[in-house]
Specification:
Blueprint lengths: L3 E3 H12 L5 H9 L13 E3 H23 L14 H4 L15 H8 L17 E4 L6 H9 L2 E6 L2 H11 L4 H19 L4 H19 L4 H7 L5 H23 L11 H4 L3 H14 L5 H17 L19 E3 L4 E3 L6 H21 L5 E5 L7 H8 L1 H10 L1 E6 L14 H7 L18 H19 L2 E11 L6 H7 L2 E10 L12 E9 L1
Parallel strand pairs: 3-4, 3-8, 4-7, 8-9
Antiparallel strand pairs: 1-2, 5-6, 9-11, 10-11
Length: 525
């Protein structure tokens, strides 16, 4: 006899089976995306218990063993932090802005806080210490240090990366931030009254909903695709062509300009003319803000907004291919989707989300010194640069010195850190220093690139040593598939005293295969 469960009963059963909280939303996601079959209608949805059990058995029983078979038995599964939901690994200000290549805050917290366990035998940092991250990125180390009462210095060669990190740890007049957001939103809506964009987009959405409801019913369509009852590629391509007739007629009716006249810059190429006009309008409104802190955080909201409004498919947001100006079949969502024609929805959503996250973090962060410097970690004078930002912090570093480093250096030949935020550099006018990146994508992973990477990392550690206490602790997170870190440590007069190999479960890339990284623990030789 088939045993059926309601969504609530399924969440309770799964929570008990996995020994962690599985919400009704988690179960609904499995239904919506065709992982398990839906029985009954909305409001009375049930699922087959045996099918749910099979799904979780496959997910749970095989992954750890499979990954250890592929990556080695020395894989420390406790450092996977698989018990945390995405909302916890992207908590409060960590999700104020997208950023490729960042590590989860739980990993930083594990090594920075004062707990010990069977893997972490001693405490490395305590309240009042100073931690350095010479590859600050989006500021994860700095943010978690601030939450733990540890003073933090970040350094990044990318001016926009430093901007992101500093925005996250700044204390704001939240009433002023809300007031300025309200003013700008009202102005943007008035600006849009003279445009046909919103009317066009609403009409297009109605047509898409009718079309998708008929040809891509949820969750039946995805369920059939999962079980190969439908050839997704052929079917999606056919329906994509069918809908183009409707789309083209609406573009003509509402006089929508899909492309800009020029494509010289990122902002020219990757945005429709209507979106570009709205971006420029909001940016001009931001320039009117008097409070510099408020101006910065609202600028970050705009940056987050325009990143989501690029003319690309949902599947290619992280790695842009070619601008998309028409409706398309979306393999990520299993239906017909559309490009963005107005920033209003995203602007309102991200404004609300940012305020909520700032309030959350404001309750958690402690009174510490924290700042991210813009500069080259190979030769930056930390004291000299800190004096310009915060003389009191500079004096503390002189007197106390830095206890250690927790950082994730760039991986050789993987990411161009300036290019991933090209839209922000175009809009805000930050100076690009692409040529100073260590191990950028454009230099590849050849012999010369690896030698340059080793030299770059060695120089960073040798420069940092001048500011560290004698008994320092350095933790570097890396996937060292080319075995470069023993040489880097040697060049810096250090020794690798421990290595923690952890599985990386939640990757943003499309490749979801078994993948690990190592936390190298370095000390003075």
């Amino acid at each position: 006899m088939i045993e059926l469960l309601s969504i609530k009963e399924a969440s309770e059963w799964a929570s008990h089976y996995l020994d962690k909280n599985v919400t009704t939303s988690n179960i609904s996601y499995l239904v919506q995306y065709g992982r398990i079959k839906k029985i009954g209608e909305n409001g009375h949805t049930q699922i087959i218990k045996s099918e749910l059990a099979d799904y979780y058995k496959e997910q749970v029983s095989t992954r750890e063993n499979s990954w250890k078979e592929q990556l080695g038995s020395d894989l420390n599964w406790a450092l996977s932090f698989e018990q945390y939901k995405e909302a916890e690994t992207t908590k409060h200000v960590h999700r104020l802005h997208p950023y490729k290549g960042k590590f989860i805050p739980q990993l930083v917290e594990y090594f920075l806080d004062e707990h010990t366990d069977k893997f972490k035998k001693e405490t490395y940092f305590k309240k009042g210490d100073i931690v350095l991250d010479p590859f600050s990125g989006s500021g994860t180390t700095m943010i978690q240090a601030c939450e733990l009462g540890i003073n933090a210095i970040g350094i990044d060669v990318s001016a926009f990366n430093a901007f992101i990190g500093n925005c996250k740890v700044t204390k704001y007049d939240l009433i002023d931030v809300q007031s300025e957001i309200t003013r700008i939103t009202k102005s943007l809506k008035s600006f849009l009254l003279n445009s046909h964009t919103i009317e066009f987009e609403n009409t297009l959405l109605k047509e898409l909903n009718l079309f998708n409801g008929k040809f891509f019913p949820v969750p039946d369509y995805k369920y059939k695709v999962k079980r190969k009852e439908i050839d997704e590629k052929k079917y999606g391509s056919k329906k994509e062509t069918e809908f183009l007739t409707i789309y083209n007629s609406l573009v003509k009716e509402f006089n929508i300009k899909l492309k800009q006249d020029e494509s010289n810059s990122f902002l020219d190429k990757w945005y429709s003319q209507h979106v570009r006009n709205e971006i420029e309008f909001v940016f001009e409104e931001i320039k009117k803000i008097e409070n510099p802190k408020t101006k910065k955080i609202i600028s970050l909201i705009l940056s987050r907004t325009i990143r989501s409004c690029r003319a690309t498919t949902h599947a290619d947001l992280a790695t842009l291919l070619e601008p998309i100006t028409t409706t398309y079949y979306c393999s990520k969502h299993g239906k017909m989707c559309k490009p963005i024609f107005s920033i209003l929805k995203w602007w309102e959503s991200y404004s609300k989300d940012t305020l909520k996250r700032l309030v959350q973090y404001d309750k958690l962060k402690q009174s510490t010194f924290h700042t991210c410097l813009t500069g080259d970690s190979r030769n930056i004078d930390i004291i000299e640069e800190l004096v310009k930002k915060n003389p009191k912090f500079a004096n503390l570093v002189k007197e106390q010195k830095i206890k250690g480093i927790f950082s994730s250096p760039p991986y050789v030949g993987l990411i161009d850190y300036h290019e991933q935020h090209a839209y922000a550099y175009d809009l805000f006018g930050f100076e690009r220093k692409d040529d100073l990146e260590i191990g950028p994508l454009y230099k590849g992973q050849g012999k010369e690139a690896k030698q340059s990477y080793i030299q770059g990392l060695s120089d960073v550690l040798n420069n940092a040593k001048k500011y560290l206490v004698d008994d320092f602790d350095i933790f570097l997170v890396a996937n060292d598939k080319y075995n470069m870190y023993p040489t880097i440590a040697e060049n810096a007069g250090m020794q690798i005293v421990n290595q923690h190999k952890r599985p990386v479960l939640n990757r943003t890339e499309k490749d979801k295969g078994a993948y690990s990284e190592i936390i190298f623990h370095l000390k003075r030789k």
